Amino acid sequence: MPELPEVELTRRHLEPVLSGAVVDDTEVRHERMVRRQPPGSDFAALLVGRRIEAADRHGKLLLFPLDDGRIWVMHLGMSGRLAVGESDAEGHTRVLVRLRRRPDVRFVDPRTFGFTAVLTAGELQEGPGAHLGPDALEALPSVDELADVLSGRSAPLKAVLLDQQVLAGLGNIYADEVLFRARLRPDRQAGSLSHAEVRALRRAVRPVLEAGLRYGGTSLGDLAYLLPDGRAGEYLGRLHAYGRDGDPCRRCGAVIRRTVIRQRSAHYCPECQR
Q1: What is the pLDDT of residues 178-230, one digit of tens each?
Q2: Partners of 244 in beta bridges
Q3: Architecture, CATH, for domain 4-126
Q4: pTM here?
């Protein structure tokens, strides 16, 4: 958390603020946030004075191409968010970027699991972008391509969906929701799916992600994720599986269960998901 919908919503909110903006100043308040900056290079020095050309995304990575060919990269981690023109009332701003004649942008991250860096295209591909598979929203593999990836795999289906080499952007929340929509148990061996089940799995991905986008993403009780304008996402109350253990299934009324798969929680309906 945040996952693809939350990161994409952040990108959409930031695009009109950042695209074409010139960076006037950068203040790194917690050095851990720039831990992915290559040795011998200075994050602030590489960013200050540069014009931001666009606002892109791949999976959970935010990518802002700069006018010198480098890319400003951000990953929100577990508790990160970006705030625009907001005061630092909570004291968790870790990186502050001041823009010329535009609002400040703050990287707020209480737990500092997120990171930011200014990288060349090669450094991105060798570092944070290495081993990222196709974007789950923009480059969803075909049924046959997905079947080939799953074929022969004994790993649980939930674990495979969390593998960013398979689909970039899915995390714990939306993987549970995709599996619920596809009527597949999270502990099924990935290689055991029939071609029809792979088709159902693929068909479930986009509607789930688009619903997350439509309702502003998922803000949990800790409000770690907020939109850049400070509003909370509204998708939490519409979830079918994630976090609903002990509650009735919205589809059949059976009690939603929780299990642990490779140290990650998984929520499912024992009747709808077989």
Answers
A1: 999 999 999 999 999 999 999 999 999 999 999 999 999 998 877 678 888 88
A2: none
A3: Alpha-Beta Barrel (3.20)
A4: 0.95
Q: Is there a catalytic annotation at residue 264?
A: yes
Look at the alpha carbons of 101, 35, 113, 263 in this order and tell me if their dihedral is positive or negative: positive
Q: Is 2 a catalytic residue?
A: yes
Does 158 participate in catalysis according to the annotation? no
204 phi, psi to nearest 5 deg: -85, -25
Q: Which of 153, 203, 251, 264 is catalytic?
A: 264
pLDDT tens digits, one per residue of 127-159: 999 999 999 999 999 999 999 999 999 999 999
> How wide is the angle at C-alpha 233 spanned by C-alphas 227 and 235, nearest 5°?
150
60 part of the active site:
yes
Q: What are the domain boundaries of the chain?
A: 4-126, 143-268
- What CATH number labels 143-268? 1.10.8.50
Q: Catalytic one among 11, 50, 60, 70?
A: 60
